[in-house]
Amino acid sequence: DSGVTQTPKHLITATGQRVTLRCSPRSGDLSVYWYQQSLDQGLQFLIQYYNGEERAKGNILERFSAQQFPDLHSELNLSSLELGDSALYFCASSVGSSGGGLAKNIQYFGAGTRLSVL
Amino acid sequence: DQQVKQNSPSLSVQEGRISILNCDYTNSMFDYFLWYKKYPAEGPTFLISISSIKDKNEDGRFTVFLNKSAKHLSLHIVPSQPGDSAVYFCAATTNAGKSTFGDGTTLTVKP
Hints:
The complex is a heterodimer. By secondary structure, chain A is mainly beta. Chain A is built from one helix and eleven strands, in the order E-E-E-E-E-E-E-E-E-H-E-E. In chain A, the strands form two sheets. In chain A, strands 2, 4, 5, 6, 9, 10 and 11 form a seven-stranded mixed beta sheet that branches. In chain A, strands 1-3-8-7 form a four-stranded antiparallel beta sheet, with no helix packed on it. In chain A, strand 5 and strand 6 (53-57) form a beta hairpin. The longest helix of chain A is centred in the C-terminal third of the chain and has 4 residues, at 102-105. The mean pLDDT of chain A is 91. In chain B, the strands form two sheets. In chain B, strands 2, 4, 5, 9, 10 and 11 form a six-stranded mixed beta sheet that branches. In chain B, strands 1-3-8-7-6 form a five-stranded antiparallel beta sheet, with no helix packed on it. By secondary structure, chain B is mainly β. Chain B has one domain (4-110): Immunoglobulins (Immunoglobulin-like, Sandwich). Helix content of chain B is 0%, strand content 55%. Chain B is globular. Chain B is built from no helices and eleven strands.
């Protein structure tokens, strides 16, 4: 158990809808990362938050947004869903964000949310 | 521009033999390199790492080698065990905390 909790585990929805994925980081971790893994693809970095602030942005679509709350949990909002958005969405957390050395940059992943857009 | 590449999508080895997984990168600003292992229906888990100032790090059956001049790293698993069968992701991280992952290599260790 990595200590990172993602809910829900599975989500089935229709095109055009909006969904929210939730992530609770490990206790003490300040950074949260979101990744998308489409079928047979690698991990695509979407966005990183550190202590409530956006820290880095990857290939995140404008239809997607995220935030990290004061209690450090994070939500990834996906709107105007398309068939191609069907994927596994992983959340990860780490202790630090920058300048912290290797140990603070090791990411601990949740089990993922499988999103199916029909 | 894919900054971290794992050119072999899959690798199959016999139990007890060596598994060598490779990873190439293009950004010389990466400070740390990490390997993660992923089983089906689970998230990736951290396996082993190396700092850019080192050329080798060993942890039990797992050794990571870094060749900075070639911008290449490799993960050696000796001896390979069936339980090592998983997808292995190479990741590179800057000191600013931004990580880039490769596409993964699926390792199958045959009994």
